[in-house]
Each structure stands twice: as C-alpha cells, then as structure tokens.
Amino acid sequence: MWKTILRRMLIMIPEVIILSILVFLLAKAMPGDPFTGSINPKANPAQIAHLMKMNGLDGPWYSQYWNWVVHLFHGNLGNSYQYQEPVTRLIAGRATNTLWLALFTMLLTYAIALPMGVFAGRHEGKLPDTIIRFYTYVTYCIPFFVILVVGIWIFGYVLGWFPTTGSISITASGWLDTIGSRFYHILLPGIMGALFSTVNIVQYLRSEVIDAKHSDYVRTARSKGVPTKDIYRHHIFRNSLLPIAAFAGYSITGLLNGSIFTETIFSYPGMGLLFINSISFRDYTVITALVLIYGILNLLGTLLSDIILSLVDPRIRIQ
C-alpha cells in the first residue's frame, strides 16, 4: 500500500503545478490592485504604478509566476499587502483557529450522525424514522448560511448563551482559561456546522442499514440465534460504514475548506475569514496561497478517503 500511496503523491505533483498556474492567473485577472484602497482611493496613478513596480507586480505574468515559485520553494509566500506581515506567519496563525473549529465540528458531526442513521434504519417506516427523515429534508433544503444566521441570532443575540465574534476572550489568562474560552467560542459555530453536515451521512447510513438488515448474512445470523444487538453492532453497522468511510477524507478536508461561511458570519479569525478579506483588499499573495492550500487539501482528501476505505475493508486495496 505504501508504494501505491507514494505513486499517488507523485501524480499529485503535476496536478499541483497546473493548479498553481490557474490560481495565479485568476488572482492576477481580478480587477483592481492591492494599493489603491490601502493608501488613498484618490491616489495618483503614478504613485500606484511606482508601488506596483516596487512589489514586482508590473511585469508579465510568467515572470511574476516564476518569482513566486522560486520564493515558494524557499518557504516564502511573500508578504501580505493588507496586514504587512509574512503570508506564512499570517496563515499559520489563522490555520490554528480553523483547525480547532474543523476538528470539533467533525467529531460532533459523526457523534450525531452515526447513531441517528443507524437508529433511523433500524426503525424503518416508524415514527423515529419519520422524524429523522423530516429533519434531514428540512436541513438539506435550508441554505447553510441561513442556518448560521438564525443560530447566531437566537443563541447569540436573543438568548445570549454564546459569543458571536472572535476565537478567544480578551480577558482569558492561563492555559486552562484559554482552552475553556476557545472551546466556548467554537461551541455555537461547531454545533451549527455539525447539524448541517450530518444530513448526507444520516441518509447514506440509513439506506445502508436498511439494505444490510434484509441481506442473507443477517438472516443467517438471526436463524442462528444471534441477539439483535450483536447483529447490528458486529454485522450491519460495520458493513454499513463502507460508504461513510469513502467520504471521510472529503469530510475532513471539506470542513477546512468550507469554513468560509461559518467564519465570516461569526467573525471567527480563521483561514475562511482571511480569504474573504484578502479578496476584498486584492491581497494577491494571500489569495494565491490560500487557494493553493485548499486545492492541495482536496487532493489529499481523495487519497485519505481511499486509505480509510482500505483500512475499514481489507478486501479493498487502493490502486
């Protein structure tokens, strides 16, 4: 399997190169520049041209791309025009917040979705199954940002149970207080994100459980007198996890990539909010770095899904 993983990673190299070129060209194709709004909306065009030349933004795209790649291999993604600090340090600080939020959302998603999907499949056609299916249909139909806005309005502003901005309280002191404050800030966005993310998992798992409980091996286990609890635990549940495992890698990287709505609405200082602000200020260095990171994460998510699937079912080997 290790040889296959190495081969897949080598195949990713030309994909990343093509992705980097497309990202760089799309960023350069954006109208505007990173200097006009930051110094003066009515700035002299000659002054803007001088700043563009000083930052190497006046040459042809292939020259700018080559300089960017050379600096990239030296671990230098450039400086942010908006924040006036190295992009690597800027993204590293925001990535920690995004990682905490994504990790909490993922754990909560599977903690809710797995028992809910098995319970709905086990009680097919009954009241619990109807309630769960109604929940998934409603959640699937409502746009994600609407759920976030309603959640922050009810639990953040009306009830005042959770903070509505930031990632940590300014009054937090000590490592224990810091961890508690960080968890308190990701609780509401994590719960709202998990409730939205459970839909597909619940529907897939419910369908797999229904198919599995009518299969021949389950009938054989019942005829041998195996308790229903053990049948669901050792036979139905394990075999029903295969489609879920196939999407596990995409789910992990998708939470990192899909944090833009959550972080923007909650003003959570992560990579998603940084990406939106960078687009607004035409911060090319940050935009290209973040989109490239998102693209690499998607490629790694594909490989991770295959690896998880092969571990869950030893009969499957990634090719």
UniProtKB/TrEMBL annotation:
It is a multi-pass membrane protein. It is found in: Cell membrane. It comes from the Bacteria. Coiled coil: none annotated. The keyword Signal does not apply. SUPFAM superfamilies: MetI-like. Belongs to the binding-protein-dependent transport system permease family. Residues 95-305 form the ABC transmembrane type-1 domain. The chain crosses the membrane at residues 99-122, 134-162, 182-205, 241-266, 286-312. It holds the Pfam family BPD_transp_1. Its main location: membrane. Keywords: Cell membrane, Membrane, Transmembrane, Transmembrane helix, Transport. The keyword Cell division does not apply. This is ABC transporter permease.
